[in-house]
Specification:
370 residues; alpha+beta; DNA primase DNAg catalytic core, N-terminal domain; Dna Topoisomerase Vi A Subunit, Chain: A, domain 2; five-stranded mixed β-sheet; four-stranded antiparallel β-sheet; 35% helix; binds zinc ion
Length: 370
């Protein structure tokens, strides 16, 4: 249904229903959901649609009116009722197309919560069947993780055999592997797209909403320059690709601030040491999935801090990527600054956090020696 053909907008409907709106001149807005009370409902002015991921209420502006007013009738009757309330003559056809003019400028990103939930349940069941080989533990300790961290984030070693048996176990638990990155049908039998000759460990990637939406593989022996791969089955029978999802951890310190960095470990370690909420892009230039989150980030945080590697003064690519990211964030009206430290204090945000922690511990020891 093309909502621009109606002589009213979803904003008009929202006001009739006493919803508190303030950004009607924009493409969309997040408001308090009248069905569940959480500030998660998205009103899309361009499309005349509403959706609340928290309680799954959603539909057209006509449905919104009918639901909130308890009005039962055909679409034509609902339109007639809204027009009556707004005092619009029955023969009036088009109002100004104000709300649809810039609808295409910023298209409201589609975040598919149903798919996220499904991927999360499949990946959790899959990871539960794997274990972390002792050979991988020293790597994780070296990065600054404890046994509790390893357990909490669910790092596992890549399985080297028994792929079809693993899939059979999942199927027996009524888990559907169709269209899940990493799984595919091999001559009619479900299997996993891993190469037993490549060893490494798996990093479950927790997305902005807390779901495991993908798995990254850290190869023991980098493949050329490639150290990380996504667990994916793109182009394979009944398989699919895995999006390059940012890794997110919520923190308790400075709850109005979100730190942006690159790479899962640069989120985990500084979150543990400093307590900030951190989101890690899969690569400094890999912002496609991140951009979809900006409307949510704008609701949840007052400011963001970009904390890319300290070598950006000599690494032109990183410096350029940071500028691009800053502009993208500004577009969404979010306050954005950068966080920098001296290269001598560590390259990545994780190195900097470990350096800071060590200095603090040393200072503490000196004091206790006195
Ligand atoms: Zn809701």
């Amino acid at each position: 249904m093309d909502m621009s053909n109606f002589p009213f907008t979803i904003g008009d409907v929202a006001r009739l229903c006493h919803l508190n709106i303030s950004r009607e001149n924009q493409t969309s807005e997040y408001i308090v959901c009248p069905f569940c009370g959480r500030k998660k409902m998205n009103l899309h002015y361009g499309k005349g649609l509403y959706h609340c991921p928290a309680c799954d209420a959603g539909g057209s502006m006509l449905k919104l009116y009918a639901e909130l007013r308890g009005f039962q009738g055909s679409k034509g009757e609902i339109v007639k009722e809204i027009k009556k309330e707004l005092g619009i003559a029955d023969n009036y056809c088009y109002r100004s197309a104000r709300q649809s003019e810039n609808a295409e400028v910023i298209v409201q990103p589609q975040v598919d919560f149903e798919r996220m939930k499904r991927l999360d349940s499949v990946y959790r069941a899959f990871l539960n069947k794997l274990f972390l080989a002792s050979v991988h533990k020293p790597y994780l300790y070296n990065r600054g993780l404890s046994d509790e961290d390893i357990e909490r984030f669910g790092f596992k070693s890549m399985p080297l055999f028994g792929y079809k048996a693993l899939c059979r176990e999942l199927l027996q638990e009524n888990i559907c592997l169709e269209n899940v990155g990493g799984f595919y049908l091999d001559e009619g039998e479900w299997t996993i797209n891993l190469n037993p000759k490549m060893t490494g460990y798996m990093i479950p990637v927790y997305n902005y909403f807390g779901f495991i939406e993908g798995i990254q593989i850290r190869l023991d022996r980098p493949f050329g320059k490639t150290k990380y791969l996504w667990f994916s089955s793109n182009g394979l029978d009944h398989g699919t690709s895995t999006a390059a999802i940012p890794f997110y951890i919520k923190g308790n310190r400075k709850p109005d601030t979100l730190v942006i960095t690159e790479g899962a470990f640069k989120a985990i370690i500084p979150n543990k040491i400093f307590g900030y909420s951190i989101i890690a892009l899969p690569g400094v230039n890999n912002t496609r999935e991140f951009e979809k989150l900006l409307p949510y980030i704008r609701q949840d945080y007052r400011q963001v801090l970009i904390a890319f590697d300290a070598d950006l003064r000599v690494n032109e690519n990183v410096a350029k990527a940071r500028e691009k990211l800053r502009r993208m964030i500004y577009e969404y009206d979010i306050v954005c600054s950068t966080f920098e430290w001296d290269l001598s204090e560590g390259k990545g945000l994780d190195d900097f956090a470990l350096h800071w922690q060590k200095n603090k511990a040393d200072a503490g020891n000196e004091r206790s020696d006195e």
